Amino acid sequence: MWNAHITEEDYKIIPKEEWDIRDTIPQLAYLTHNFVRYYGKYIPPIATNLVKRYTERQDIILDNFAGCGTGLVEAKLHGRNSIGVEINPLGVLASKVKTTIIDPRKLSDTFMDLLQKSSLDISNLEEKNNEVTLSIPSKADFSSIDKWFTSKQINHLGVLRHHVFGLEEDDALKDFFKLAFGAIIRRCSLAFDGEVRPHINKKKKPRKVLVAFKDKVEDMIERMKLFSQETAKDVFTKVFQHDSRDLQKIVDDESVDLIISHPPYLNAFDYAPVFKPTMHWLDLKYLTTRKEEIRAWPATNKKLVDKYFSDLDKCLTEMYRVIKPNRKCCVVIGDCTIRKKPLATHKVIINLATDKGFKIERIISRKPWYTTGRYSYDPRALKLEYILVFGLN
Ligand SMILES: C[S@@+](CC[C@H](N)C(=O)[O-])C[C@H]1O[C@@H](n2cnc3c(N)ncnc32)[C@H](O)[C@@H]1O
Q1: What's the distance, Cα to Cα, between the start and end of the chain in Å?
Q2: For atom 3 of ligand 1, which residue has the closest CA?
Q3: How many angstroms separate the CA atoms of 189 and 373, rounded?
């Protein structure tokens, strides 16, 4: 069903374009983009270029694999409305916090209070005062917690979690601090910071919990200040924790002006396991997410590959239903290799989309300029990243 059947001749005549984006990771991590490390996101200029090229102010953009909200942040910065759909609750939390403006003074006041209470509790804990309340994920939920964290880190994180989860402020403010807490989990664990899938780094000295939290929150507040100055105030960003294979209840027929779609890349990695420790500390449903997410790895399993493409096929049906006539639908995707054999995932997607009634109008390609670490997927497998621009027949 999913074998690429586009002919070489047909492929050749599709207009091509190359984007050469060489900004470094720090240059790309501006404003709220830097709030949390979400592995496997696209770089902001991909969204910026598509938003500027294919939409006007006040248009509605759908990002149906919103991840941590990169596309939604760019939409808001450029005065476009957006709808984000994402199955992973960590991505949903990040997408909301990165696009919700909060008064920095309110953030600073709450932060001072949080910090004071947490440092007092940590001092008490070190003096073996049993009065301190800890909030630690249960072993029933997170059985491998002792593998990833030293007992000292578990206790300090437990203190901070107790105060963050106990905040009685409104949801947006509480979510801001929850995300900051989630953002330090990897650094405070025994896992490599930079690897996509978590692996123990025997040489690692984990960061002190309160120092890491203080640095993170101070940086986030500064960025929130700038974001609120630079972003449009007259547009909405709606984020749904939902499955992109069925958008019936959340997106109307022919209602969006641009789709930017960035599904998991086949044979790269599945998302939930990458965030497992963070999701447990944030009390986000790891197992449910694992069951519901579109699986992309390992592609040596033929059933998984069939299911991956049939899942994308369902998403494309929905994308075709919700896009307005004469507007564009863009799919960002990388090819893969399976047992050293290349599979042109982007060509398969062109076939699936064409069968729905989409018309491939342009293929943009870019070479990623950095790779993601020792345990990540083979960077040679991902020579190019494609942006497939579809119109409607
Ligand atoms: C390549 S990432 C998107 C990253 C995003 N562009 C960003 O910059 O953060 C793919 C996302 O698809 C999500 N996902 C997987 N299955 C899904 C589904 N059935 N519905 C919605 N999202 C899903 C994953 O959790 C992951 O966040």
Answers
A1: 22
A2: 67
A3: 18
| DSSP letter (8 states) at residue 339 | T
Nearest alpha carbon, ligand 1 atom 26? 67
Write out the H or E segment, with its range, that includes residue 116.
helix 104-126
Amino acid at 197: R
Rg (CA), the chain: 22
Chain centroid to Cα 46, Å, comes to 15
CA dihedral 96, 99, 101, 105 (to 10 degrees): 80
**DSSP H or E run through 307:** helix 302-322
Flag whether pLDDT at 375 surpasses 50.
no
391 three-state secondary structure: strand
Contact 75, 81 (CB under 8 A): yes
Structural fold of domain 8-97+236-392: Rossmann fold (3.40.50)
Please give the number of the atom of ligand 1 that sits closest to the Cα of 289: 25
Check residue 194 and report its DSSP letter.
S
User: Which sequence spans correspond to the domains of the chain?
Assistant: 8-97+236-392, 104-229
Handedness of CA 26, 44, 58, 99 (dihedral sign): negative
Q: Which ligand 1 atom is at minimum distance from the Cα of 294?
A: 16
Environment class of residue 4 by beta-carbon count within 10 Å: exposed (0-12), middle (13-18) or buried (19+)?
middle
The model's pTM is: 0.96
User: Residues for the chain: how many in total?
Assistant: 393
Q: Give pLDDT tens digits for 152-197.
A: 999 999 999 999 999 987 899 999 999 999 999 999 999 998 888 8
Report residue 158 as tokens. Answer: 């437990």
Q: What distance in angstroms lies between residue 50's CA and the mean position of ligand 1's atoms?
A: 18
In short, whether 295's Cβ falls inside 6 Å of ligand 1 is: no
- Please list the alpha-helical segments (H only) found in 149-270: 151-165, 171-185, 209-230
> Which atom in ligand 1 lies closest to the alpha carbon of residue 38?
9
Contact 191, 278 (CB under 8 A): no
The kind and range of the H/E element at 260 are strand 256-261
Q: What is the whole-number distance in angstroms between the Cα of residue 87 and the centre of ligand 1? A: 7
Query: Distance between CA atoms of 75 and 29, rounded to whole angstroms?
Result: 16
63 C-alpha to ligand 1 centroid (Å): 9
What is the enclosing helix (H) or strand (E) of 11? Answer: helix 8-12
